[in-house]
Amino acid sequence: MTESPQTAEPGHLTLRCGDGATIAYRFTPGKSPGVIFLPGFKSDMTGTKAAHLEGFCRARGQAYLRFDYFGHGVSSGAFADGTIGRWAEDAVRVLDEAAPGPMVLVGSSMGGWIMVLAALQRPERVAAMLGLAVAPDFTEDLIAGALTAEQRTALERQGFFEMPDCYGGEPYPITQALLDDGRRHLVLRKALPLDVPVRLIHGMKDEDVPWQTSLRLAQMLRSADVETTLVKDGAHRLSEPDDLKRLDATLEALLRRVEGQSDS
Fold first, then answer.
1. Are 120 and 91 in contact (CB under 8 A)?
2. Which of 47, 108, 123, 188 is the most exposed place for a label (fewest CB within 10 A)?
């Protein structure tokens, strides 16, 4: 559920949290509604889709914001100390303090979970949502329910286990705190009182998150304006050239719909 970061970029801004942590972000001014990108687990604002969307928004004259969660990228903190709730707080803080006006939330993988949690806390700020290979409830449905005996023992003895990185990177810790906190933030167990337009895209060759997860999210959303696109040859990252073209077309249509609603 990760995306390899690109070369670190200069010129980011920071928000300071109450505990002294700092959240890094980049903001491109433009017209409303703005677009905000929420990256996936262990991904950051230099990833392919995050950077690509900045170019899309610049060309369209749209405001755009991308950021790093606590313990990710150039934000402060250790990744192992992060939780779903903490990362959702980061997204809400960015909405409150750095994102002007209504925003279209674009969430990738875990960012799709954070997108929903942020929208539930700030529904008045969210104009629409676009999810890419969304992974709500993954700590419970994809990790906790599939632990090996060795991983359970490690959690009991040291509070974490090392998860192999399927993309060839270093193993990373999955903590008991992450699993426990994720259980407190599940969103696929009850109806979600969100009424904005929602578009979901999921690859049917996704080996990290089953494509049925997007269908479950679509079912749980109260909004009647929800469309799900299944890409037969799509993998989890959805960052190939054809995937990015599809992302552009979907976001363009979604922005036009939101703009049309505001004009009526």
1. no
2. 123
Tell the burial category of 87 from Cβ atoms under 10 Å away from its Cβ (0-12, 13-18, 19+): buried
CA-based nearest residue to 125, from 35, 260, 210: 35
Could you give all domains of the chain from N- to C-terminal order, each with its CATH number?
Answer: 13-137+192-258 (3.40.50.1820)
Amino acid letter, 72 = H
Strand partners, 198: 129, 226
Identity of the residue numbered 62: Q
**Could you give the CA distance from residue 23 to residue 74 in angstroms, rounded to a whole number?**
8
Rg (CA), the chain: 17
The stretches in the chain having pLDDT less than 70 are: 1-10, 263-264
Task: Look at the block and give the residue holding tokens 């073209």.
Answer: 245
Active site residues: 109, 206, 236
Q: 82 in helix, strand or coil?
A: coil
At 45, is the secondary structure helix, strand, or coil?
coil
Dihedral, CA atoms, 137, 142, 146, 150, nearest 10 degrees? -90
Burial track 94-132 (b if 16+ CB lie within 10 A, e otherwise): bbeebbeebbbbbbbbbbbbbbbbbbbebeebbbbbbbb
CA–CA dist 96, 214 (Å, integer): 27
> Is the whole model's pTM more than 0.90, yes or no?
yes
Please write the tens of the pLDDT for every residue from 108-132: 999 999 999 999 999 999 999 999 9
Q: Which of 91, 101, 31 is nearest to 66 (CA)?
A: 91
